[in-house]
Amino acid sequence: MESPIPDYLNRVLEATRPLESGQPAGYIETLAKADTSKLAVALAMVDGTIYSAGDDQVEFSIQSISKAFVYALAIDDAGLDKVLEKIGVEPSGGAYNGIPVSVDRSTSRPMNPMINAGAIAAHALVVGPNATVEERTDRILKALSRLAGRQLHVDETVYEDELKDSGRNMGIAYILKAAGFIECDPQDAVKGYIRQCAINVNVRDLAMMAATLCNGGKQPISGDQIFPQQSVRQVLSVMTTCGMYDAAGTWVANVGIPAKSGVAGGIIGALPGQLGIAAFSPKLDKKGNSVRGVAICEKMSRDMGLHMM
Ligand code: DON
To answer: Cβ of 184: how many Cβ atoms within 10 Å?
Structure first.
């Protein structure tokens, strides 16, 4: 008997396609020119079964969704205690690109690893303080490819576009360096962070990556234990409270599962022990989250009873 899920996913896309609000990210040239008609959704079970609909082969840069997985790598490479010295776990209540307030260690520790300041600090912990940009990028690319189950690549055009206009992130990194929250060269931290954000994925990749988190860090198809279970618990907890930035409260109320968004228009959701979901549509709301992507996840949560509460 054929699964009803593919037809259901198509119905979800048709129900959300009429939403016209939002704009693609304007500060990264390639993203600003994105085809805003693209719309896709995928659902991956912890047994490795995957379903998808719409533009499910269309690739886009992972952007901030990478932060969830790089947080796990930072924990693996530096240990949770050191990560917590550098990066908090509290929601910032502000925008994803908020700037730490001073070089005073007591006031500029990044609030969490999902905002840019915390993500840059997490990136700087991957491999180690003396690693090169290439070494950190290689470790991250290998890990994300294992999570997706196929070889991923950095989109060099997106990387160059974002590097051209990286003043805000460079400023954040210099404050973090002065306050001792990163130990490597601030420019290397930002270059490597932007390269991790420029890795291209599609919704099927993202759903499988989310399903790996739901599966205690074990990739559902390969069976590889990519992250320790305790790292995954930490990541999912912080995704729940911080993954959607200053829309996290509304997300938990309306969708109710750990999530992470990205400014190319991707979103992942992870229902521990069951399934990962991914949605893609380039138009963003004022908080940097995909308008149709959020609507897709809200509908699926209602229809499929995904809410954890
Ligand atoms: O650093 C930036 O601004 C981008 N590379 C990532 C921001 C992002 O994806 C925010 N999430 N919605």
So the answer is: 21
Q: Are strands 50-54 and 60-61 parallel, antiparallel or unpaired?
A: unpaired
Ligand 1 pocket test: pick from 197, 246, 267, 281 the residue with the most ligand atoms within 8 Å of its Cβ.
197
Supply the ipTM of this predicted assembly: 0.98
Nearest partner of 260 among 201, 206, 202, judged by Cα: 206
Alpha helices in the chain (DSSP H): 5-16, 29-32, 66-78, 80-86, 105-108, 116-125, 133-148, 156-164, 167-178, 186-197, 203-214, 229-242, 248-254, 291-304
Largest CA distance in the chain: 63
Q: Does the pTM exceed 0.95?
A: yes
- Residue 63 CA, closest ligand 1 atom number: 9
Nearest protein CA to atom 11 of ligand 1, as residue? 262
Give me ligand 1 centre to Cα 211, in Å. Answer: 22
Q: What is the pLDDT of residues 253-280, one digit of tens each?
A: 999 999 999 999 999 999 999 999 999 9
